[in-house]
Amino acid sequence: MDLVIRDAKVVDGTGGASCRADVAIDGGRIAALVREGAGRRPSARRVLDAGGLALSPGFIDMHAHSDLALLRDPGHEAKAAQGVTLEVLGQDGLSYAPVDDATLAQVRAQITGWNGGAPGDTSPDFTWRSVGEYLDRLDHGFDGHGIAVNAACLVPQGTVRMLAVGYEDRAASADELTRMKQLVAEGMEQGAVGLSSGLTYTPGMYASDAELTELCRVVARYDGYYCPHHRSYGAGALQAYEEMLAVTREAGCALHLAHATMNFGVNKGRAPELLALLDKALASGADITLDTYPYTPGCTTLAAMLPGWAAVGGPEAVLARLQDPESAARIRHDLEVTGSDGCHGVPIEWDTVEISGVRDPGLAGHVGKTLAHSAAERGEAPWTTARRLLIDDRLGSTILHHVGHEENVRQIMRHRVHTGGSDGILQGDKPHPRAYGTFPRYLGTYVRELGVLSLEECVAHLTSRPAARLRLPDRGLVREGYRADLALFDPETVAAGSTFEAPRVLPLGIPYVLIDGRFVIEDGRRTDVLAGRAVRRTDGPAGEGSGGRAGRAAAGRAGTVTPRDTLHTNS
Predict the structure, then answer these.
(1) Which residues pair with 277 in a beta bridge?
(2) Given a cut of 70, is residue 341 above it in pLDDT?
(3) CA-CA distances (angstroms) from residue 26 to 5, 32, 325, 373, 480?
(4) For a disulfide at 548, which of 54, 362, 512, 542, Cβ 3.0-4.6 Å?
């Protein structure tokens, strides 16, 4: 054997009781698991004494914004040090494939605040245009040696609409819809695991339910899933959830709700209503999962707060409207009085909007302050400060949006179809601490300190349950034959080191992380191992009435840990 981990507290990902065991690894897979006292202990070229550390499957980040970070930072400690061994990219309907040259420039400008990579930046090289070429680029990674952690990706619906329709707020023509369906099918055939949307972001928000349903029908043929950031997490949030349930029910498509929560004052204490809605759909046979992060503030770009009509035409059109006094006055009214669709139908409260990062270093004086605070320092209205910042930073500013509720966070994370997702934005001088702390915070704060979940339950939420959603045949469990993507952590000390004041601090209590049996974290330090690869869907479209639909329903009903063999990892 290559390696034996002795005397580990194995938390195997099923949710069942942990056990003391030796785990042997050979050829990148788990070769043997021998419980304490159950037989001859395995031997290997290397033996690691776990000393009672918990050994679990590596954590799967179901909502990551590392689309470019994985190609710029070989260390990627923000995720590797948390025990994350797989991230799902292409979130919120906006990412970098499929594109043409013009669309790539537009999407780079629009989501600079999420990922960097603004037009003019030279890293990474942006040599790809299709989903398959992007996945190939991940496989190549750094000088052909791979990337820090494994990555799967979703086809971004907003980018697809940008490519086929543009930034116009109108229904797609029949030819444009055909083109979008073709792009989604191509992305799925090239290895994407599903389709994402950002329905409070342009241009994805301009799609009708009928259009989304047609795209989801394509995804369903490939046994993929739809992952919407839906139309509102504020006013009308429950109706927005109902809308996504209806779209996927009509399309026969699996549904995974992104960062599923109930925010803003109008939704305080209303998590039980959301969970009742989901339970009713699950009881009827719907295939549903969701992800959340264990924090109350959200994080996005300041430009995302603007009304959808103001973004018609793309980033340059937004800047032109902000500079036009009449248009700017209309934007302000929508933000402060009506409640813009970008701000989830709720009138903006400037004291909840904290600037977390700026593209222009000359604007760093805003970072760490709410817009209300920055405006008071300047003796002006918050809108005046916000408008100037949007223009001067060319829409590149990111924000923390303090509109969540702790009781909602706790109730939703207990649900049986819940999974973990960081929604981690790594850009900015003061990023959200969830980018560095989500998974240890679950284990330290919500398991050890608060007892919201047991250790075994929590590990299942972060491992086997997302593996089932992704149809991974050989990840998500500590089981013989499975890939040795593993995390070793101390249940008594594991904790998020990152805070809102110091968000880039690495976690505590996770001394070892392995991908394909190779140490990417060893003795608490990042090694130079680049064991990550692109994880691709490899099966073709399923025929109507095939086993795919039954498999989807089983995953949603029970959080099954026996997914179909439909994914493949290049190695």
Answers:
(1) none
(2) yes
(3) 12, 9, 66, 57, 11
(4) 542
Q: Give phi and psi for 526, each to the nearest 5.
A: -70, 130
Number of other residues whose CB lies within 10 A of the CB of residue 52? 13
The confidence score (pLDDT) of residue 541 equals 75
Mean pLDDT value across the chain? 93
**For residue 507, what is the DSSP state?**
P
What are the structure tokens assigned to 26, written together?
A: 């050979």
Tokens representing residue 176 in the block: 């444009």
Q: What's residue 542's pLDDT?
A: 59
* Rounded distance between C-alpha atoms, residue 515 and residue 25, angstroms: 11
Q: What confidence tens digit (pLDDT) does each residue in 54-73 have?
A: 999 999 999 999 999 999 99
CA–CA gap between residue 234 and residue 266 (Å, rounded): 7
- Residue 467: pLDDT above 60? yes
Report the distance separating Cα 245 and Cα 289, nearest Å. 11
* CA separation for the pair 7, 54 (Å, rounded): 9
> How many H-runs (helices) and E-runs (strands) does the chain carry?
19, 23
Q: How far apart are CA 191 and CA 139, in angstroms?
A: 12
- C-alpha 338/C-alpha 350 separation (Å) is 15
Give the integer Cα–Cα distance in Å for 357 and 271.
30
CA distances from 492 to 15, 54, 509, 526 (A): 19, 10, 8, 22
By the 8 A CB rule, do 146 and 532 touch? yes
pLDDT at site 559: 40
What pLDDT is recorded for position 201? 94
- CA–CA separation, 561 vs 475, rounded Å? 10
- Please give the full DSSP string across 158-219, using - where no structure is assigned: HHHHHHHT-S--SPPPHHHHHHHHHHHHHHHHTT--EEEEETTSTTGGG--HHHHHHHHHHH
Residue 54, classed as helix, strand or coil, is strand
SS (HEC) of 220-276: HHCCCEEEEECCCCCCCHHHHHHHHHHHHHHHCCEEEECCCCCCCHHHCCCHHHHHH
